[in-house]
User: Fold these one by one.
Assistant:
Number 1:
Amino acid sequence: MLVFILRRLTQSALALLIMSVLVFVGVFAIGNPIDILINPQADQAEIARATAALGLDQPLWTQYWDFLRNALGGNLGRSFSHNVPAVQLIFERMPATVELALAAMLIAIVLGIPLGLVAGMKPESWFSRTIMAGSILGFSLPTFWVGLMLIMVFSVYLGWLPSTGRGHTTLLLGVPVSFLNWDGLMHLMMPALNLALFKLSLLIRLTRAGTREAMLQDYVKFARAKGLSMRRIVLAHVLKNIMIPIVTVIGLEFGSVIAFSIVTETIFAWPGMGKLLIDSINVLDRPVIVAYVLIIVCMFVIINLAVDLLYSALDPRVRLSAAAT
Amino acid sequence: MRRAPTSARSRTNSGRRHSALHFPLMGRVLALLAFFLAGTASSAELKIALSADITSLDPHYLAAQPNINIGWHVFDALTRVDARARPIPGIATSWRAVDATTWEFRIRKGIRFHDGSELTAADVAFSLERPLSIAGSPGGFASFVRPIVAKEIVDPYTIRLRTAAPYGALPQDLNSILIVSKKAAAHATSEDFNSGRAMIGSGPYRFVRFARGDRVELARFEGHWEAPAAWDKVTFRLLPTDPARTAALLAGDVDVIENVPTADLARLRGNPNYRLAQAVSWRTLFFHLDQYRARPPLVTDKTGRPLAANPFMDVRVRRAISKAINRPALVERVMEGAAVPASNVVSPQIFGHNAELKAEVYDPDGAKKLLAEAGYPDGFGLTVAAPNNRYVNDDQVAQTVAQMLSRIGIRARVETLPLSVYLTKVRDQQFSFAMLGWGSYSADLALRSLLAGVNPAKGYGTWNWGRYSNPRLDRLIEQALATVDEKKREAIAREAGAVVADDVAVIPLYHQIVTWVMKKNIGYTARTDEFTLAHEFRPQ
């Protein structure tokens, strides 16, 4: 177990290093942030001064070496356009994104698994067919379009929900969250639903497929023959057996929801990390881009680790050994 | 937000229940609450949606429009500009050129900062130095104060600024330097401004809260030297996505939106619940043409082989291209009416605009004739380069211009890129026909950056992508900037504009029209510099 975790950590450090090189070189290849950020009235001398002040006049490898030295000391640099440490900037915006992602995953899980179970158990009923048709829509409609439609219907025509923004926040253990008050909750609803739609459809289909397969297995037949209630068969036997792929997907999708909530955040003006990333890419704010990617890599590492640990909890046959990696 | 007063009222009720116990204290608290309630009851809040993100509240860190926009509420500057972008008194009641290289500013007496202290020449001197002391700013305000070589505080209400050479644009430049309180900002970092600790200005609004990426909240400063603003509370929401901004207005979440997408204009104009405010913006769109390389990149004959000479060096070719562009159609169709055809590189209200110049008339036959005279009877091939996320409908404009050029036999390809990639390629000199948009407070300043011969020693021609060079123009620009007499300076700037038009140094397209939409009961005088200033909105 310990060896397993240690090996994971070594691999992660390597992944971080590679990612930092890739992003660093990538942003460098796109261009010079000074071109975008400079005061248009600045003369050539001023441009040169600003370039030198940010160290952008140095060769690429020198810039990377400086970055690496500072990064090992825990300093990922200051944002060019915000003049705030990049990590602070990201952590300031992280609660909003994590809250949105958690809300979306919660919607997806709470609705997706039961609906999937129903659709899997009675695949021919009209209700199941409706669920499946709905899941196709959830898969295929583009997020930005659904988001705009939600705003049009619920904010503009019905006037039930606020169109954009995060609303009131309250502190929970020092972290600002919006789901604890009415105004915040109202603001959270639409973006969370919009973000959840794709994951919801995915979970429905996954659960349905797993259920249909499991229902044909011998142990289900045996349980039936034993006279167990359907309720008990589904909740105690079927669900437990189909959970492993579902947990894997939830884990991976949770990471991707946090990392790629950009579209939803942009449409609903949700002040999360995704919006920060887009803005930073637009002005080539390298410290923020690099820090963002590194933090996301760390997050995926942690989530994957958690998923692996969950496996062994769900299925005692899975052993966490060095060979299992 | 309309819910806020109700909840505050219920709080007073519960307070009253306990008031029997601690009457003296509670009484005072109640009186205070009642005072605030009375204030909020008759209060007015204005919620404005801005179209770009605010990165820093430090007024001297990054010269980006949204940052400056907030700065203008909390701070004042020596000079301001009116809706037509002409300098008007700000903190300074008047200014004059004592001699050719000395400007004297007389500071209004009794101006108070938000902390109650008085604003004096010492604060002004400090603020004029601060932009130079900020390390690591990629696009700060240093350019505006760099010309000042010496400052002299004559008395608390008079300051003299000396420049190395005569510089007539100084009062205009100083409109961009916001005056901070020396006491509050002496050791302040950008973080101190973001948190509000150092956000002590003398502007019409006090800083309340900055939620990064989401909103900025301000409250009226009762002690402002001008008539107090109409709104007690102002909230700026940051809504960079166009449809989201319009939706927020339609849903009633905000009262005003800026930079209305052209696609929504017709719909909002027809809606009786809203009012539009429009002005010709200072932003002018034009194409730079390569005028310095014998073999400009991406310019070929029709089969893709390089040409013998650079066609853009011939003024007839430049004029032919200008004649080939149907500006009224471009404005009407692509910009949905939100632009006016351009003849100058500065828009009509800007200092030094030459009104005698008329936008080139669409004349494809004349254009073909000119091309034939220049030795290109069958046209040639070029690539129209433009950004695709910077100006209103920029990529569509590039597409349309390419189509129009094909009518006179020029085979035009189009390359549009995100601004970051685009600017890098431009700086790398990879294009010969490239779009640029420019907004400036005066024609001579604009021409110095855009079309003066490239000269790093003087700081000329920083954005002269085509390396157009004309000694006569350089002389005029230099002369205009060195003239401290406004009238003479404007006359020279106009002459410079005529030289540019005569030479077709760039291909001017149009001046953008900037639009605000607000609820019917609010009015705004549209500003040519595109700033959205809460204190200039009035209830109607």
Number 2:
Amino acid sequence: MAIHTPIDTVRTPVPGGPPPGAGAARRLRRRNTLAGWSFILPNFVGFAALTLVPVVAALALAFMEWNSYSTPEWVGLDNFRRMVGSETFWTALYNTTYYALGHIPLTLVAALGFAVLLNRALRGVRFFRTALFFPYITALVAVAVVWNMLFNPDAGPVNQLLRAIGVDNPPGWTTSTTWAMPAVIITSVWRDMGYYMVLYLAGLQTIPAELYEAARTDGASAWQRFRHITVPSLRPTTFFVLIMLTISSFKVFDLIQVMTEGGPGRSTLVLSQLIFREGITQGRFGYSSAIAMVLFVVVLVITVVQFQLQRRGER
Amino acid sequence: MNRHTGRMNRHIGRAVATATAVVLVTAGCGGGDEPAVGDDGREILTIALWNYDSTPEFAALIDGFEAAHPDIDVQPVDILADDYAEKVTTMLAGGDQTDVLTMKNVTDYSRYALRGQLASVADEAADLDQSKYLSLEPFNLDGDYFALPYRQDFWVLYYNKAMLADTGADLTSLTWAEYADLAKQLTSGSGQDTVYGTYHHTWRSIIHSTAAAQSGGDLIGGEYGFLKDRYEMVLDLQDAGATLPWATASTQKVQYHTMFSTEQAAMLPMGTWYAARLIEEKKAGSIDVDWGIAPLPQVTEGGPVTTFGSPTAFAVNNKARNSEAARTFVAWAAGPEGAAAIASIGVYPAYSDETITETYFGVDGMTNDEVAQAAFQPDEVMLEMPVSEKSSDVDVILTEEHELIMIGERAVDDGIAEMGKRVTSEVD
């Protein structure tokens, strides 16, 4: 059976043109295809020039030695061997994972918690929603600088508060290798939770009120309603939030660059920073592309696993 | 579909195709290699530099050069000082065509030069009177030159004259031990009103380069025992509260200028570049500190005065649009005329002779007592960091380990051992 698209069925005669027939239809189709292509083309050219080609080039560069001026030289797996033998790489991978394991669950829980809290007809709810979203639209450098001040071990308000409530020896935060990463995670959770809260709020609007009413009639407690209605109904939103958080956590760069520059020592050095440092600063674009490939594969694998788990959960 | 929409589609299709073609064509042939010429017919010469407004030497050089070469219009490309190295590295990697690049230090210079990003200026170097320069040698890479120095900085000790007046210390020949005692003695007050005896900025050079220069250590050699004494002294001063803790200075991004000019610190080991800013701001009335310059303290008394420093230079970008004008500028700035231009505003030039020295100490607001005269006659100025392909990799490691020692997470001996271990195993 022939499938007729709306275009196929167009038979409007063009004045002065050939009579309607097979040839005209073909011309029309060709013209429409061309028009379609020319609509896509500008965007595609941009995508190809700015994304596709660089990504493919980076993949190739991972197997080369190149300082951006010399002719790239094929070195096979040398860059990967160097990476495996580099303590700094493993430190950065560990730190990135540490950051992700802190940032993802905390942001998710905070975002969901605030969304549920602010999804009621409370007085001033709009104000609180706006206030929570505010950090997300604040310039990241400003966020980092201000939090650095708050975390100042001696005079910073955070430690002053801790001392006031009886903590004798408060953490050194960004001046301590143990506490620098938690400091960065706290800052990033504070900054990101508003954005994900808005996503959850949108998700909450889609849950039919009848479900809650029915549950209430059956005598379900608030926790039971949350546990058995809200959480399952939000599954698609949670999945989306999880994927977005995972990707953003693994490619974290700017916040750490401004707050700690990877320090003290290497305690907050993450993969994106290492890629930047090896490539842009040290001019080892091959090696830095190899690290970028590893980062890509890590994120890809985690995302695929999440998709699988999600699919299994739906069944 | 009616006739009207059909025609409109055709129009849109054509418009989109034309727009695409225009984008492709302009993207393909953007730039161009012909020399840039301004509306007034003068050649445009672009110079990458930092903090143009607060670094008066650049304006002095540009004004002087334009007066000598009225056919050239010099346009600064202003970059934030803190981001300068990274920004220029990124620019060069992207094929930027800025004509002249300021080389902030010799490490960056060697990196750009070894990557082939700078044009040779060996001919211009051959024309210079070598005996008049303290450090032309660091720019010699296997007999070739890729930048010429226009200013020479080295580290000295800035001090607050009023605060040190009663101490009776002989500042012309201070040892580090005497310096430490003095710093403790000068510390007073508490909380917000603390006046520290001295301020050590967060750079590792204050410890590393001083120790290397004065004890003959090699910063890229992988053996760092020579750093121990300096670390112990600095940490002791920190523990005694005689200097702002490193961690505070680092996280709060404290400016050394603020510490010294607002009289929160009585002494400040720092480079000679700082004098120009003090002169200028004092003249403008924005600061009031009565400052002096003394030689950098030494390990022992009576020996030769050794300090460290770094020449600042101009290089010609290998992809410069106005390569000829760029060469003219680089040679002019490195020569006597460039030297005179910056000496007259209190910046110590790379080229020096009697006239230049006279000009320098004659600057209105310049401190020119006996102690200052001594400070400007060091016996030896070592490089802040040796020039080598390894320098920037070693720099990363030393900086990371330095941080750990300074925040007290690693004992001095362990930190020094770790530096050696990492430099040996990670840098090839």
